[in-house]
Amino acid sequence: MRIAVTGRSGQVVSCLLERGKAAGHEVIALGRPELDLTDQASVHRAIVAARPDVVVSAAAYTAVDKAENEADMANAINAVGPGAVADAARELQVPLIHLSTDYVFDGSLDRPYVEDDPTGPTGIYGASKLAGEEAVLRSYPDNSAVLRVAWVYSPYGANFVKTMLRLAADRDEISVVADQFGNPTSALDIADGVLKVAANLVASNDSSLRGIFHMTAAGEASWADFAEAIFAASVERGGPSASVNRIGTADYPTPARRPENSRLACARILEAHGVMLPQWQGSLETVIEQLLVRAA
């Protein structure tokens, strides 16, 4: 497959370039200045010129707290931009995969969210991502798959795993929130899932392959649980470690309110696409291994 993906250096883009090449696909990363999500004309030109078999909409404004003061920018990139990507894919009549987030929910349920649960973002970032989903499905409902992912980490870019390892190099104890729960998900696994979904969309017009899907790692954790697993995997490999001071959300106020429950149920994507991402603990060890080898 020839895959055009928006963005150049994001975690999922970087992992798609790695995994796509390994699987024999041609992955074309489209970013600024050729493709700028705030410039709809550039989006159209770049995607049409790439002549892809499938388009992956991965680029996004992801500064959750900063978005509270940059709503216009967050909405231009996350809400309006994906609609332009969908318009270009529709013109080419090729499938579109759009990546979204657990932050479209308010986190008030006491069980994992399914795709049909009511949305209710608690901040500008989540609201902008929900608007992006709606723009994609409004523009190109017949040939788009929206994949909601969560708690993304990888060997690339900025993420929670890399932050914990960096802090552990200088501190004996790190305070981490213990009352927010989700599914830590490796972008390497997300890339594998995206490639599988892309192949399915290219091969079949089946409507059950389109629509909204949740795609996260198996298993769940709090941020504090996640941090403890990071340090355990790191110290086993000679890397930095620290003790975790488990705190409440109220002890760590942030400009944007995070969902208490970010857990996503992923039965729909398994049934439709045959995609089931691995348990997060094993994938975490793979990423830790790569990060420590690079740092050596």
Question: Any key phrases for this structure?
Answer:
single chain, two-stranded parallel sheet, 9 helices, 6-stranded parallel sheet, alpha/beta, 296 residues, Rossmann fold
Structural class of the helix and strand makeup?
alpha/beta
Instruction: Give the integer mean of the pLDDT values.
Output: 97
What is the rounded Rg?
A: 19 Å
Helix content: 40-55%
What's the main sheet like? 6 strands, parallel
What does this structure look like?
With 296 residues, the chain is α/β, with parallel strands linked by helices. It has one domain: NAD(P)-binding Rossmann-like Domain (Rossmann fold, 3-Layer(aba) Sandwich), CATH 3.40.50.720. It has nine helices and twelve strands. The strands form four sheets. The chain has a six-stranded parallel sheet, sandwiched between helices. A two-stranded parallel sheet has the order 6-9. The protein has a two-stranded parallel sheet with strand order 7-12. Strand 4 (96-101), helix 4 and strand 5 (144-149) form a beta-alpha-beta unit. It is globular, with a radius of gyration of 19 Å. The two termini are 35 Å apart.
Detail the topology: elements first, then pairings.
Layout lengths: L1 E5 L4 H12 L3 E5 L9 H11 L3 E4 L13 H22 L3 E6 L22 H16 L4 E6 L2 E2 L6 H9 L4 E5 L3 E2 L2 E2 H17 L7 E4 L6 E2 H14 L6 E5 L19 H7 L6 H16 L1
Parallel strand pairs: 1-2, 1-3, 3-4, 4-5, 5-10, 6-9, 7-12
Antiparallel strand pairs: 8-11
